[in-house]
TauD/TfdA-like domain-containing protein (Asterophora parasitica), 418 residues
Amino acid sequence: MAAVAVQQVTDLLKNDSSLSQRTAELTVEAKAPTQPDIEYHPDAAKYKARTARRLAEDPSLPSTPLPEGFPKKLESPLVWQGSDFKDEKEWVYVLAPAHLKEIDDALKHFRGLEKPLGHISAATFPLPTLGPVLTDLAHVLHSGRGFFVLRAIPVDSYTREENAIIYAGVSSYVGNLRAVQDAPAAVAHIKDLTQTAPAQTIGAPGYTTDKQVFHTDTGDIIALFTLETAAEGGTSRISSTWKAYNELAETRPDLIKTLSEPWPLDGFGGTPAYTLRPLLFYLDEKVIIQYARRLFTGYRALPRSSDIPPITEAQAEALDALHFLGEKYNLGLNFQKGDIQYINNLSVFHARDAFVDTPEKTRHLLRLWLRNEKLAWKTPTELEPNWKRLYYTTPSDEHTFPLEPTVRSAVRGKGVKY
């Protein structure tokens, strides 16, 4: 009798196609990979636990061979840690009164040309003695330590537009090409907009007072011009990605391998839904790291898309490893009003402390993405389409310089209409 009952149940399951289909779907769902427990703001305890768990599961990870051709150790002035520097005079170049007069004269010269701001260049913004100094400092970015600060433009002596002209004119000697950051705009404002812009529009920490974790921007050189500092906090922090590479290559070469393999970068509802590329490249004897953590974790109005492949546990560990190595070896830069910070975005990543604004002191930076065609490193194949779009699609004389901050289109919340 029992055997008959079992057979009846078996026959019922075989004949119930919908139940069989659902059983199959549940089996697939159970096996489908899920997004690791990781957020935009790194959690040191979770990072340590993930590392311990992965090493316990596979003790051979630290013995993983480096990807073919990748160096065991980088030797260069680009390999540094914050404690290597004892005085900010090592990276700060203070503008002399004669230089400031040259800048003022160059501003008047450009104004006299009566040309749109897109025409700003070394040719239209003449700096007879400062220009060669800036040209030399551009070498520091590409083959020296990878950063310097120019101190300090007297911003209160000029209008917002005049400061933009000066910023672009001076920067044209460091990098002759400007990228469009929100075509055709070549300049972006980094400022807390949470009090003025709708919450659903802000998908990146640059428009908040939040701490920014270590990341890179897009392009070769990042320039940040300080129109005003915060009332409290907001320290700009930089760190050598080459130093981070050396430590990972020595202790966790498996994470170098992970970083050099394709990752799913979130398109946040765009087309395509996501793109695949490595975060780390080795080309022409140079290591290049290009990534932003929010593309794998989401941020505020741009949460991670649910219908794209999740990152792996190895990738989650690699993301945290980069951030915490950045913190371990970071150098805090003492931004002052009127300073311009230049960094090699291919070998230096950056972060920012959380900050507090007041009506009297509201942190406000201008940002340019630059490229020096004479000194530029070779661009990895996977990055070439974006570099072409940024630097070579919009003619420079069509560039605009918005004077008021807005949320850049690339980081506006999904479905936001303007």
Observations:
- The first strand starts at residue 92 and ends at 94.
- The radius of gyration is 25 Å.
